[in-house]
Write a structure and sequence with these properties.
The protein is 27% helix and 24% strand. The chain is α/β, with parallel strands linked by helices. It has a five-stranded parallel beta sheet with strand order 4-3-2-1-5. Strand 1, helix 1 and strand 2 form a beta-alpha-beta unit.
Length: 88
């Protein structure tokens, strides 16, 4: 099942240490809130990592270039394109 993992609290590397076994090849990540500031310089996964442009602007976070930025309208389309969404 294609799942969008929305990592809000903590960090993506910490999530991977605990939950990597839940990650499928067609899954993706959406990072926001405190997770935005914890991204490593290079992508820790093969799956796509997304963030909302408005979250970046509001937090003034600097994100690595592997993060795909989405407008609010694109974010809605992204969420609807996945069979399942899980917020962490």
């Amino acid at each position: 099942m294609k799942t969008l993992h929305w990592v809000r609290d903590g960090s993506l590397p910490a999530w991977l240490e605990t939950h990597k076994h839940l990650l499928g090849k067609t899954d993706a990540f959406l990072v926001s809130e405190s997770a935005l500031g914890t991204l490593p310089d290079s992508s820790p996964v093969l799956q796509t990592i997304y963030a909302r442009k408005s979250d970046i602007e509001n937090s003034k976070a600097t994100v690595p270039n592997y993060v795909v930025l989405k407008s609010d309208a694109e974010w809605v389309e992204l969420v609807l394109s996945f069979q399942q969404q899980v917020t962490w």
